[in-house]
Amino acid sequence: MSGVAGRHVVLGVSGGIASYKACVVARRLTEAGATVDVVMTAAAAEFVRPMVFEALTGRPVGTSLWEAGRALDHIRLGREPDLVVVAPATARLIARVAQGLADDLLTALLLARRAPLLLCPAMNDQMYAHPETRKNLAVLLERGVHVLGPVTGALARGEGEGPGRMVEPEAIVAHATRLLRSGAPFAGRRVLVTAGPTREAIDPVRVITNRSTGRMGYALARVAWERGADVTLVSGPSQLPLPIGVDGVRIETTEELQAAVARALPSADVLLMAAAPADYRPMRAAATKTPRRSGALAVPVEPTDDVLLGTITLRKRGAVIVGFALETGDVTAKAREKLRRKHLDLVVANDATEPGAGPGVETNRVTFVTARGEVALPLQSKDAVAEAILDRVAELVAARG
């Protein structure tokens, strides 16, 4: 999680059964390089002992306003962090914060805080539905507090399911990362990302496709969302989960990809065309499967439409358009031709034959090709490549205002 390392996060934990999930949040943020100070209410310490959080973060845990030598912890922990997260936030804690009470270490530092606050409610569904709880949450939203959840799911044993369950730790960490990273030039921008292969039917069973897994496009969508953009990901068949916070559109064929891009592109500030559409499709798909015993199978094919070329007349004025070129032979020359012919701002090019790069692996070596020249990047993870691409796109977006 680039952008989290070196940041300071205060994790407040109040007393609910979901307190154990806060351990995962503390660990994930610490593993990402953040300094995490945990502050617990007295009730939270009845569910999870402070020693657990100290072991996970390597930091002392705050539990009391009255601890000797730490009289001003509520002021320090209110001023220093880049972000404050409260997970879980019980109905009682929410009510105290809405009323401005400061009767323990956690509520005192929340009253003194300067950093953004991410509140993750967790309670019984009847408590969540109570008018006072809803009013308290509305007050906090009006004050600029970020409220994440709750979601509908299994509650405490015997209570069935309902709205009130705390969101999962992965979602909390993702939204915390976005709050830490969000800012110019991506905040408020609309980014359209395409990913994965397309499939063209030969018959009801067989298809023409390619080796793309979608990993590069999914990484781009996640990083763009973390940086504050509103992201739509148009994805062909992929086994990857949709990144948290990203709007997903599933497609199968190149024609469906073309239609989905055409719908979303006119309002997009950035297009990252990382999908690998099938270049050919059968001229006519068979209605039934041809058995193998029939012998050799001849499938006449025709070129599919060039989706990226077809976007030229649909692009928003000033939008940044990025193409990808997975090639063999003289990769850079082919990327330069693609840049010119398709009126692109940047082409991310790589060699399909290079070991450790391209589809089906977690690393890639790419070259950035622009009108000003080429920049070759070293072999690195696709997550790191996504960060580098978004860095370059940020420069282009900022230059256009």
The CATH class designation of the largest domain is Alpha Beta
Question: What count of helical segments does DSSP give?
Answer: 13
Total number of β-strand segments? Answer: 21
> How is the largest sheet built, in terms of strand order?
12-11-8-13-16-17-19-20
CATH homolog superfamily of the largest domain: CoaB-like
List its traits:
single chain, 401 residues, alpha/beta, Rossmann fold, 2 domains, eight-stranded mixed beta sheet, five-stranded parallel beta sheet, 32% helix
Quick structural overview:
With 401 residues, the protein is an alpha/beta fold. It contains 13 helices and 21 strands.
Structural commentary:
This protein has 401 residues and is of the alpha/beta class. The protein has two domains: 8-181, Flavin prenyltransferase-like (Rossmann fold), CATH 3.40.50.1950; 190-399, CoaB-like (Rossmann fold). It has helices at 19-31, 44-47, 50-57, 73-79, 91-98, 105-112, 125-129, 131-142, 169-181, 215-226, 254-264, 331-341, 382-399; strands at residues 8-13, 35-40, 83-89, 117-121, 146-147, 151-154, 161-165, 190-195, 200-201, 207-208, 230-235, 247-250, 270-273, 280-282, 301-303, 320-327, 346-351, 363-364, 367-370, 373-376, 380-381. The strands form six sheets. It has an eight-stranded mixed β-sheet, sandwiched between helices. α1 crosses α9 (169-181). The longest helix is centred in the last third of the chain and has 18 residues, at 382-399. 43% of the residues are buried.
